[in-house]
Amino acid sequence: MYKLDTPLDRKEAAAIERRRNREQQRQGRIFNAKVRQIGIDVQGLETQVDEKKQHEQREREREEAFAQDAVRYDKIATLMETRQQADKRALNMYENEFRSLHQQPEARREWDLYDPDALKKDKPARVHDDDPRCTISSLQKFDGEDLNAKARRRLQEEQLREWSLQQQREKDAAKWGQKEADRLYDLKRRELDQRACELAQAEEACRRAINMATADYNNALAREAEERARLRRQQEQDDNATEVSNAIFSDMLTENPAVAQSAFGSHRVVPDRWKGMTPEQQEEVRRIQALQAEEQRRKREAEKREKDEWDRQRALQARTGVLIEREVERVNRDLQRKQAEENLRLAREQKAHKEFLEKELYTNPPTAAYFMQFNTSSR
Questions:
Q1: What's phi and psi for 181, nearest 5 deg?
Q2: What is d(CA 159, CA 273) in angstroms, rounded to the nearest whole number?
Q3: Entry pTM
Q4: Using an 8 Å Cβ cutoff, are 269 and 262 in contact?
Q5: What sign results for the dihedral spanned by CA atoms 71, 76, 81, 86?
C-alpha cells in the first residue's frame, strides 16, 4: 500500500551527511578537553600576521611618499627664498639710485633748518625800526631801543607836561562843578521841605474832615441798627405769643384721640400723635398674652413627653447593642476555636506528608546509569 523503499534525494542526503560530519567534528572539539582548554587557532594567527605585514608595508610606502613630498617642498621653498632675496636686492638698488637722483638734501623742504651755511646766507636780525620781520614774537625790538630814542624822550616829556596841566584844569573844573551841584541840591532840598510842610497841613485838614464825616455816618448807622433791633424784638415777642397760643389750643396738648387715626385704616395710628391705648385695647392685649402663655405651657409639656420618649428609645437601643456585642463575641470565639482545630489538622497532615517524602519517596539513591545519560550530544 505504501512505498517505504523510496530512495532519498541526493541533495538532501548530501546535506544530511554534511551536517553529520560537522556534528562529529564539533563533538571532537568540544569533548577533547586538551584542545578546548589550551588549543590555538593557527590559521587565524597566520591571517593576523599577514594582515600586520601588509599594514606595515602600506605604512612604509606612505612614509616614503611623505618623505619625497617633503624633499620636493623643501626644494621649492629654497628656490622661492632665493628668488625673493634677489628681488629684494634689486629693489634696494633701485631705491638707492632714485634717492641719489631725486632726493638730494638741498631739495628738501626742511633744508633751511639744518643748512650749515644758513647763517652766512641769512640777513641781520634787524635792519631798521620798521623792519617787517621784527614782529612781537621775534624779540628783536623792545621799548626804548629804537633809533630815535632822544627825540622820542623829548616828545614824551612835553606830552607829560601837557597832560599834567590838563589834569589840573580838569580837577579845578570838577571842584567848581561839585560846589555848584551842592548849591543846587540845597536849594532843591529847601523847596521840597516847604512843599512837604504844605502837603502835611493839607493832609491834616483833609483827615479832620474825613473823621467828622465818618463820625456822622457811624452815628446814623447806630441809630438805624438800634431801630432794626427794636423791630426785631417786637416781632419776636409777637411770634412767641402766637406760638404759645397755638400750643395751648393744639390737638397735642388737648390729647384729641381723633388726631392719632391714620388715613391708611382704622387699625393704624400716627406714631407722633398717638397718646396710648384705650382700656378696651389694653384688655384685648392681656387676653392675647394669656392665650400665648397657655400655648407655651402646652408646647413645653409636649417637648417634655417627646424627650422622655427619646430617653426610653436610647436606653432600649443601648440594651440591644449590648446583646448584639455579646452575640458577636460568642460567634468570634466559635470561629477562633474552629480555626485552631483546622490548623491542628493541617499541621498533622503536613507532618505526615513530610514523613512520607523523607521515609518513602526520597529513599532511592541515583545510580551510574542516571549520570551516563548526560553529555551524550553536543547540543
A1: -65, -40
A2: 123
A3: 0.22
A4: yes
A5: positive
